[in-house]
Description:
mainly alpha, two-stranded antiparallel ribbon
Amino acid sequence: MSQLSSEDEAELQSLLKQxxxxxxxxxSGAPSTECAEEILLHLEETDKNFHNYEFxxxxxxxxxxxxxxxxxxxxxxxxxxxxxxxxxxxHDTLIHAVTRRTRDSSEYQQMMQTLxxxxxxxxxxxxxxxxxxxxxxxxxxxxxxxxxxxxQYTDNCSDSDSSxxxxxxxxxxxxxxxxxxxLDSSRPKEVRWEALQALCCAPPSDVLSCESWSxxxxxxxxxLTDPDLSDNVLQFFAKSFSxxxxxxxxxxxxxxxKSVESSFLxxxxxxxxxxxxxDINRPEISRLLKQIRLMNDFQKEVTTFWIRHPEKYMxxxxxxxxxxxxxxxxxxxxxxxxxxxxxxxxxxxxxxxKATWFKKWMHGYYSRTVVLxxxxxxxxSLIIAALQQCVHYSESRERLTNETTDPGSAEQQNSGSxxxxxxxxxxxxxxxxxxxxxxxxxxxxxxxGRKLFPIKVRKRKDPVSLTDLVVILINILYQHPKxxxxxxxxxxxxxxxxxxxxxxxxxxxxxxxxTECLYQTPxxxxxxxxxxxxxxxxxxxxxxxxxxxxxxxxxxxxxxxTDRGLALFLYEKNVVGAHxxxxxxxxxxxxxxxxLLEKELSSQSESDVSHALCGxxxxxxxxxxxxCEGLQVLRPYGLHKAVAAxxxxxxxxSERVPTPVxxxxxxxxxxxxxxxxxxxxxxxxxxxxxxxxPKGLLLLQQTGAINECVxxxxxxFTKKLQVSRCxxxxxxxxxxxxAATAPGAVAxxxxxxxxxxxxxxxxxxxxxxxxxxxxxxxPTPMEPIDRSCLKVSIYHVCPVxxxxxxxxxxxxxxxxxxxxxxxxxxxxxxxxxxxxxxxENVTEPDASEGEFIIDSLSVERNHVLVRVSVxxxxxxxxxxxxxxxxxxxxxxxxxxxxxxLPHCYTLDPSKIHQDSQDSEISAFLASSKDSKNExxxxxxxxxxxxxxxxxxxxxxxxxxxxxLLEKVVAHLSNSATxxxxxxxxxxxxxxxAKSAALSSVEQLGIGTCFRYGSYLKLLKEDAANxxxxxxxxxxxxLSTQRVKTSSQLITQQDGYPGHDWLASTVFLIMAGDxxxxxxxxxxxxxxxxxxxxxxxxxxxxxxxxxxVAVSGIPPVYWCTAHxxxxxLKAEVPxxxxxxxxxxxxxxxxxxxxxxQCFWNYLDWTEICHYVSTCVLMGPDYQxxxxxxxxxxxQPDILQRTQTQELQVFLKEEPIRGFEVSNYLEFMExxxxxxxxxxxxxxxxxSNPVE
Length: 1250
């Protein structure tokens, strides 16, 4: 290809011309030719559309045609040698080598020479045509000038983009000097106009960099005041703004601002107040409007680049703006009565009513700092004026509340209308109010902005504080009528209510803002004033009560969704009740929600508005009751019952809506049905959110709607809908809470939720990440093997191994719960199955000396076998790792295929002190036998216990602990004040007990306990029979304490479903003495503590209401775990947040630990200390112990949350390093702070849902 054809050259010329037009603004804005060349050289780096230009596409095609064969040849030559695929760094080496050889080829040299020659010809042709076109334009311009010398000058728009379609010619310094002289105000207007025309055709970069720029700028600013020249000047300024650096454009901007200020000063414009109109097409107003419009365009664009320039340039722009906008405060004065001064800020408000320019200036820290500094030191009058405008608007609306006119009509006339030129005085004032409110809203959200308050304004005795301003906004909200379209939740962006809500939303979203502005007593009082009025039977002073109350509810919900706002509602008496007493906001809100619900229940005709209002206030309550502390306050009101009753009624009504028939009634019936379905979903959603806390889940279960709620949750989950506008972490927490209970698990199963999760999990395991669609397939020679083929090959080799590994891993997690393991063992004999698999996994299956094959399956099986065969805490057993290690012996742990296990998996137990001679506790028990003052003895005992626990905790084991527990439990059970349940009436008959039958789970549990007790050297060889006898006695006794039920829940049908780990623990503490163990357990059963530390004792108990007894939800969940979550939020907030983000809950883990009495999680000594602490110090110490454990685990919890391993970590790992004695002081602190709440609620176990 020696030369391009004439057709190719013509195409190339057209494409080049098209390219130059596309990048015209970049080239024309360059201050010099060298800069223009630099822009072209780096166009690919700076222009995202570079590869879309037709000229670039043409060149790429030309290169491929010329060099394609050469590249292919060189690639073959370089890869022929070793046959290796070029991947990774080798790939890069190949590319560089091919590129180098191609550039050295003769074809490349010929292509470049041809292209260079062709481009020279094309460019020369373009230059010649440009010069011809320019001469022709000048000739036509002279003719036009001659014919129009005495006519009106054409009006050019001042839009910033109006100059981009023109061609520029280079201009000499001498010409610019001459133009500057012609623009002098002493010259005739025609001469100045001609000079301006020439100036507009010149490149702005040449003009702005010339020596005459200073005089040019002065003359241009002077021309701005001339009606016939102003538009041409603005046209030049617009081009300069779009193509010049800030050091030049800021001079133009400041000059323009001063010119506008001078014009306002000289014209002294005004506008009529009230309904009289002002025409902005009046020449003097129109000219100023165009100038301010150009300034506003620059204000909004300058933020994108001023950070690249010195701060002083930005400060000049900001200060000149503030100077102009504060003009009326320094120089202007309002005219009397019927007229007001028209000021720059009025026109700016018309052009940019929501103050977009100010929002952009406040967005970045770089500019915001300067803005706030200038407002504080020099231009605070701007903020004063904005605040004055809001105060004036609020007060004027208050005076008009009794009029029939619509206070917000000014803005509603404007919405959606075409461009207008006539505005009433009210509309101008309203536009200024909107602009002022938007400015104030931005100022309020920053600390230094809030420091500008309080502010003194006219006609107000006291300065306006931040709280006062928020109250003003709320009052504006109250004065606005019902929003358009009949939708109370809709707020027009320019309506007073919409504007006020925008500011309130912004404040709610920022903690510091909300604390300073919203979380104040006057604000809460103002928000709840209409609610209190309606509760007391008065009329709320609102234009549209339903719509306004719905907006109030929205603000209240956002406040309640924050910790500080919730505390404000729950714990501060910040509102005055109907009888003049101060009360809590939460009580007012729930009372109003109940009042609305009661009206719904008794009403014969229901409306969408009442549904929306009622739903809005229930939503506020929802932000309160979906927290543990909030539910504690709202529970006495029985909101769950009221919502459930409303849902049941609505559900029955929706079923009775007649089928639509042809005619007019069809639409009505359909709308009625749709309305009812929406309301039904709202109520169901509100009920579902009770499941966010353990106690709330019990309340939900008691309503009988748990199945419907879980099905509703599943439907939203499958659609990937968020919980609500206030919830950030999805349904994870709620699903976990529900799944932790028997009725919740049944509801999840019946809804299809569990099936969907299992299918999704299995699809992920089956498919994996390899099934992700490849968006950009790689060329075949560069990819050694297709990823999907690789995956298929792997599964062909070991599909069964994969599935078994997953099963073993899941089995390991399941067996962490001792009751789950015992159930699986009783049903499937899993230990034998695993041992058999290990026996078969040897090098020579038929020979007895075969060695174990060490692979991922055998390693995982070995781990599971040790986990289920050895009981003990972190210092009592050693679990083998799951992975091979990088060393000479990758798996030094011995495998086994039969019992007993190798000794390396059990560690030496801590010494248990059986000698009580030197024990302070023993001495105390011996010396205080004859004490008659029961309370003082117990107090002394507790003090002695705490003293020993903090000084010599290891001494509090063995016989000492047994004696202590026996004496304390006997003492408490004989105390009328401490005996909570009726004393046990059980006569232990060995013959009867021996005839009782134990379930397979209980029998396996006895074996597990016997092995643990033998390891601890607490039991004798025949202790298994003694433990069996104890379990039978306990089973007979507890069966007399249970209600008869026909529940469908499996856990409620045949006694306690798991093993009695507390009874086993007591048996070990008593060193295998059946009589002492049974006596202690019988005495313990009369104490409140037994309801929490002894799950088998309270299971389906007659001591709780029947509906709670058959619910399948134990007190250790709905009470203990509930308060653990509540205290974690207050005392260990990082752990609470970690659980929240992970979707897992502390309550599920508490249920797991406490049900099996911390077996396998704590060492024996700590298990004993947990039991003794709860018995001696009180049942609420069970809560404090769990909080202490979570506090101890905080570093691990935070780390595992980040790696998304929290649930597996907490279930599989023991609690290392935790000692009850180390946290006893911490727990005593929790007792002082929370006993009044926790213990009081524990005592309501006999009636927990009332």
